[in-house]
Write a structure and sequence with these properties.
The chain is mainly α and 672 residues long. The termini are far apart. 74% of the residues lie in helices and 0% in strands.
Length: 672
């Protein structure tokens, strides 16, 4: 006996709202006598999302992308209408260019470029053989898509809307909780017994939280409940990002102290025990000031050697930074609550360079763009060579498939899953187009006929586990309705158009398998090489020290990107990859600190250090074995000179950090 699917209240509500918006769009487009009213219905589903703010952002970006794609069509079709081959090539190149730009913007705005690419394909390829209808078709598509967007935004915003606030604040509180837990585990446990096994998990969760917070916050301007707290949300995200390298540096310094002294010194342990109240979100400014003063005094404690003195200065400096960042985080979290409640919130500014700093792989983006151009061109060659009347649908399908799955390491399995869903949709599409539509003589009958199919599909679209298959089923049915003239459809046109769609999808999958599919190991290596390249730039160019916030944001994003790519190898591999990425993150912070305080250190030795660091990181990028062992005596001499010359504490802490990160197994003594 087959069990009936059970849908949650949220899934049913999402499906009902999506269907209502689609039917409203279909009704209005029919009343306005638009040529393809099912385009409006399909658009209402495409922009649907359980969160109202996401619907509004997708709606805006989709409309802008459609306008841009239509503008490209209006420019290309009249100019190249005399040569179908050149016009097809120009449209394919436009798809590739837009996909490349889309992959270089890992925010919600990337939707604009992707839509601009395949909107031009959807509008332009059917016009290759009928360019005279170019302007009317472009206007009709913009009108139909704009109507679908308007209806979806209106329904999802006014009918039991789900705000972004609970999701965003939940991720925000989880990130702060993970940071607090990481710090608590550091200060509460005795590092002499070894690293607390909970700390690696704390690190990994915090990196994932920060990336998720970054992506969710792009929708804040579209959420009415969070609009006035947008500045505080950006500032808090930046502060949590800056907190991570400091936490990691404190952890590393405590480990070094344990190695050098056999355990945490008694005075440091008692300071941790006496001053832990600053971690409480309700801590007063006096308690925070007392903790800063107590941590600052750690540097003046007993030291049996210059190396232990350097470690004490390093720990005191890192703890002061940690308290300042944590206090700012709790203040900003309170400001966000005040803004949501409608109270005035101080204006907050975040460094401009850190706002959009995410890892970008231009090489992989270019490879994806070339794949899209190749798949689309191959479809066009087959279409033009065979003279297939429905061949334009093949080119459209190839362009859409190559664009839609381009963000994955290996898009082919997802493409195959989508194609399988399209095949399952074929009998449903045939029933709707050839059996139901001819009998639907009024709008009410049409709604009753198609409601069961789309309501069930909508419920599955709301489930992350089944959303891809449900989306394939939806595109199969709704796409057939949008591409067919439902009043005169017959078996020949139905089979021809659907065969063209499947042929384009298969071509896209095969070309992607040959040119674009890469393994997770390959992608992980590219992520690490990008980190080494950034480190080399930081060392070689003093002016890049101002980019430290952007570097930290990119490195944390890379940690989050590495996690799912090494997770199938087991938890130990995840911890090793995260540890390496955090070490590189700390080195970047130390290099930028040295660049900022280079005036307090000898010029020529410091320049030599930066030059050697740049050479080491470039050797990593090139895949050559770096030889940096001779650099250890040079770092030791710089550190001894800084200790005797009473150099600024941040510079000493940065030198200690570099020594620990470059030479983690070096003896706990400084060599003159």
């Amino acid at each position: 006996m087959i069990a009936r699917p059970r849908f949650s209240r949220q899934e049913l509500l999402f499906s009902l709202k999506s269907f209502a918006a689609a039917m409203l769009a279909l009704y209005l487009s029919s009343r306005f006598a638009l040529p393809r009213p099912f385009w409006a219905m399909m658009t209402a589903y495409i922009v649907a999302h359980p969160l109202a703010s996401n619907v509004r952002s997708k709606a805006l970006y989709r409309f802008l992308g459609t306008l841009l794609g239509c503008a490209a069509t209006v420019v290309l079709v009249p100019s190249l209408s005399g040569s179908p081959e050149l016009l097809s090539l120009a449209l394919a190149l436009w798809v590739g260019l837009c996909l490349y730009l889309s992959l270089l913007d890992r925010s919600a705005r990337s939707y604009v470029f992707m839509l601009a690419g395949y909107s031009a394909a959807l509008i332009g390829f059917p016009l290759v053989e009928a360019p005279a209808a170019m302007f009317d078709t472009a206007v009709a598509r913009v009108t139909e898509i704009g109507l679908g967007i308007l209806c979806a935004s209106w329904v999802h915003s006014l009918v039991l809307p789900n705000g972004l606030g609970p999701s965003l604040l939940g991720v925000m509180d989880r990130a702060l909780g993970d940071a607090r837990q990481w710090l608590t585990n550091l200060l509460r446990e005795t590092p002499a017994k070894g690293l607390d096994p909970r700390i690696p998990a704390d690190r990994q969760r915090l990196a994932l939280d920060i990336t998720q917070l970054r992506l969710l916050s792009t929708h804040v301007p579209f959420d009415t409940g969070l609009r006035w707290s947008g500045g505080a949300i950006d500032a808090l995200r930046y502060r949590v990002t800056a907190l991570t390298p400091v936490l990691s540096a404190v952890e590393d310094c405590l480990q070094a102290l344990c190695t050098a002294t056999g355990g945490v010194p008694d005075d440091i342990g008692s300071t941790f025990a006496q001053h832990s109240g600053w971690l409480d979100p309700r801590a007063t400014s006096a308690g925070v000031d007392d903790a800063c003063a107590a941590f600052r005094a750690i540097a003046d404690g007993p030291a049996a050697s210059p190396w232990i003195l350097a470690l004490r200065i390093d720990l005191a400096t890192r703890l002061e930074d940690l308290v300042a960042h944590w206090d700012a985080c709790t203040t900003l979290r309170n400001d966000i609550d005040a803004g949501i409640a409608g109270n005035p919130v101080p204006l907050r500014r975040t460094p401009a360079l850190a706002r959009g700093a995410l890892h970008l792989d231009r090489g992989l983006a270019l490879r994806s763009a070339i794949t899209a151009v190749s798949g689309t061109c191959l479809s066009c060659v087959l279409w033009i060579a065979t003279g297939w009347p429905s061949g334009s649908a093949m080119a459209m399908s190839a362009a859409v498939f190559c664009s839609f799955f381009a963000t994955m390491d290996d898009p082919v399995p997802a493409m195959h899953k989508f194609i399988t869903a399209l095949l399952w949709s074929l009998p449903v599409s045939a029933f709707c187009v050839l059996a139901v539509m001819p009998w639907a003589h009024d709008f009410g009958m049409l709604v009753l006929c198609i409601a069961p199919v789309f309501l069930v599909i909508g419920c599955y679209m709301a489930r992350p586990a089944s959303s891809l298959s449900a989306l394939g089923m939806f595109f199969g049915v709704a796409g057939t309705l949008a591409l067919q003239d439902t009043a005169t459809a017959d078996w020949v046109s139905f089979i021809s158009s659907n065969l063209a769609l499947f042929a384009g999808a298969v071509i896209a999958a095969r070309v992607t398998a040959l040119m674009r599919s890469v393994g997770r190991d390959w992608t992980a290596r590219r992520i690490r090489r990008a980190a080494w390249h950034d480190l080399a730039d930081l060392a070689a160019h003093p002016q890049h020290a101002s980019n430290r916030h952007a570097f930290g944001s990119r490195m944390l994003d890379r940690i989050a990107l590495l996690a799912p790519r090494v997770a199938p190898d087991g938890p130990e591999e995840v911890q090793v990859a995260a540890h390496r990425a955090l070490r590189e993150l700390r080195m970047g912070a130390d290099i930028t600190a040295l660049q900022r305080h280079r005036g307090s250190l000898p010029g020529e030795p410091l320049a030599h250090l930066f030059g050697e660091l740049a050479r080491i990181f470039r050797a990593h990028v090139a895949g050559a074995p770096p030889r940096h062992a001779p650099l250890l005596p040079h770092v030791d001499r710089l550190l001894l000179g800084a200790l005797t010359a009473d150099t600024e504490r941040p510079a000493i802490a940065a030198l200690v950090g570099l020594r620990r990160n470059l030479f983690p197994t070096a003896p706990p003594t400084l060599q003159p």
